[in-house]
Amino acid sequence: MASLQDLDLPPDLRQRLLARGVRTARDCLHHSVTDLAELLDLPHSAASALLLSVSAQSAPGYVTAAQLYSLALIDNSSQLRTFLPDLDAALRVGVPPGAITELVGPAGVGKSQMAMGLALSAALPRELQGLGVTAMYIDTEGKLSVARMQEMALARAARAFAEQPGPPAPPGAAAAPAALAALEELAMSALDRVLIVRAATLDALHESLAALERQVPQTGARLVVLDSVAALLRGGELGGGREQMLERSEHVGRQAAALKVLAERHRIPVVVTNQVTARPTGPAAHAFQGGGAAAGGGEGEGDGHNAAALGTKWAHGVNVRLVLERQGARRFIKIAKSPISPNLAFEYAITAAGAQQVGCGPVTATDGAAQVGGSVLALPIVNQPAPEGPAWDGGGGGGWGGDGGGY
């Protein structure tokens, strides 16, 4: 809250407040009118007027709906796209700024692939349908592969070259090497705009999140990616006792608060990946898939349903939750939580260029994906219930190719 030095107060009152240890608006507002009157030796009416003045100057300002709409139009001109056109349209032109967007799903489904692809979407120049801005990428699992990002960047350059207007090349003719090389050079320049932070411990992660408050404006970053938010909390750094569970809950709250403030203060999208855990079937277990191994395996396999890790405290901090899952060889991404979008599911594939939409429009039961259309989409939020000991164990696993294998 604001310092008293920043408020428009009579100089003598400000000095008396500071002399008595009242240094911020918060300190002042914690006192009642009677307390302030006694503390500053003021008439009751003067103490009341002082509190009203400090309160009015400290309260958040308001904006009109028209102003917010104008701001949204400006944001749309530089909004981060997933390169899944129908998903972008459902999310109102991509990943929203000023919000936390979560990618949650079992290992091997493509969470890290999508996270790397979004970082590239921010960093690629506009000639390659990117934003040409800096992205901050915090890697807690060691899954980030610069070689894979390079492959994605070059594949997008090749795709942009193939989509260039002009007469078709004669059969057997080689591609124009100079034009393609120029696009590849543009694509490779994007790697200079992806700033990578490795955080292998909880302390390192908290320090990295705190440093972002300074680094985001310094670097001009317009995207922050955290891959993953759950890995360090579910690893061996914290034990499984009751005190450790409470400590883990505090860490979850700190991470959520830091990311929320970062997104809102700098009006940027914050994208995080989250793991799943197996929970027993029951009213508190919201389904991802029909159940463990039959639905494609990965982290949290076993009886019951898969649910998003970190529980309700974390879920309430998330603005948009995108659930990724597999049905056999097919992959689907669902809008499970969004303040502006309907609950829809879309099919995608992981290609050399990253995530790519399969088919057109949302999937339905007639697409042969009845289970996908009717599982998580029937529920507004997919949460793991509060941690209860051993259920926290387990983790991500797998290599860089789609969180756990080749893409």
Automatic annotation (TrEMBL):
GO terms of molecular function: ATP binding; ATP-dependent DNA damage sensor activity; double-stranded DNA binding; four-way junction DNA binding; single-stranded DNA binding
Principal subcellular localisation of the protein: nucleus
Cellular component per GO, a single term: replication fork
Entries under Pfam families matching the protein: HHH_XRCC3_RpoA, Rad51
Keywords from the named record: DNA damage, DNA recombination, DNA-binding, Nucleus
Coiled coil: none
PANTHER family: DNA REPAIR PROTEIN RAD51 HOMOLOG 2
Protein's name in the database: DNA repair protein RAD51
Organism phylogeny: Eukaryota, Viridiplantae, Chlorophyta, core chlorophytes, Chlorophyceae
